[in-house]
Design brief:
The complex is a heterodimer of chains A (216) and B (180).
Chain A lengths: L7 H9 L4 H13 L1 H19 L10 H12 L21 H5 L9 E2 L5 E5 L6 E7 L8 E3 L3 E7 L2 E2 L4 E2 L4 E4 L8 E2 L5 E7 L3 E3 L2 H10 L2
Helix pairs in contact in A: 1-3, 2-3
Chain B lengths: L5 H14 L2 H21 L4 H17 L11 H16 L21 H20 L2 H12 L4 H5 L6 H19 L1
Helix pairs in contact in B: 1-2, 2-3, 3-4, 5-8
The chains are: A alpha+beta (216), B mainly alpha (180).
Amino acid sequence: MITHHLSDRLLMAYSAGNLPEAFNLVIASHIALCDECRARLASFDAIGGAMLEQMPETGQALPDSALAATLARIKTTPVAAKPAPRPAQSRVLPEPLASYVGGDIDAIRWRGIGGGVRQAILPTSKAATARMLFIPAGKAVPDHGHNGLEMTLVLQGAFADATARFGRGDIEIADEDLDHQPIAEPGEDCICLAVTDAPLKFRALLPRLAQPFLRI
Amino acid sequence: MQTRNGAEWIALLKQVAEAQDTEAFTALFQHFAPRIKAFLVKSGADPAMAEEVAQDVMVTVWNKAAQFDPSRASVATWIFTIARNRRIDMLRRDRRPEPEELFWGPEEEPDQLQLLALQQESDQLIAAIADLPEKQRVMIERAYFSDLSHSEIAEETGLPLGTIKSRIRLALERLRHSLS
């Protein structure tokens, strides 16, 4: 049962297509797991549709040649058949995340960053950073604050910090005001997708020195 | 120009999907192509490029007509999502990966009552947005069509979400119900 969802503002910006790639990735991955946010996204898309519908068309008419040109193009373009629905696969990583990783969790190329915690940076545009995080059961991520926005989506296991508990599908949205130390629950190792638009502020000196090299 | 409601657009798109009907397509083109162009011009495209891309979007409408599902979106909303994706390519914006599709089961016929409800709600939403005070409408327009950075969005720019949300609440509940 997912209890931590996307905010309206993030859903609207995703619907509009105005976010950095890494944020789009974490939002799409949450929606793949969360029917409620999928339904809410449909509502924000509907606002986009309503805005399109009431665009002023005056002065934007296309010349008659445009319709003719388009009709000529579609004459050579067959109407595509309806794609067959694919049954959902039972994987830890939903699409689009699986494509970014290149498979399921066994395809992730981890690097240790201390304390048993591992990470893997995913290829996205530079505007924000997406990384997979592996937190061994019962272990903690170094205590940190944030310079910008951080979104963390749980894919396996669970973690808790001072604010709440986050399980599979839950997404934590943290900003400048939150200092937190996420701790993985005992039992199962915790795997998350964490996205940041600014370097995290680590409390302890050692992680701070390591920060430029680890790209956290 | 005569305006059509949601159900009429759905019927025209169905004609395109099932009979490759160019007359139905022409009606869709004449209504939506200028709006797509206006949307792209507002997003910063020059008019010639906006026209070119509006034609691309309409070719996609033809090509993907059979994939349109009236139980999930209005025609305007579906065309908006195509135009949005082309706008991202055109302006070389960041990639926007999509969530994997739900598995909807083998060729289930959508419930006619639900279909009707979705169409009515879409028509009401269009009316509700048209009725917003100019200032609020412009805020939403900026969020969708121009470059409202996410830090600006995070700063609570006075988006009148409450006003609109009350109008889409029913649509939301229905969608949740159909997804559960």
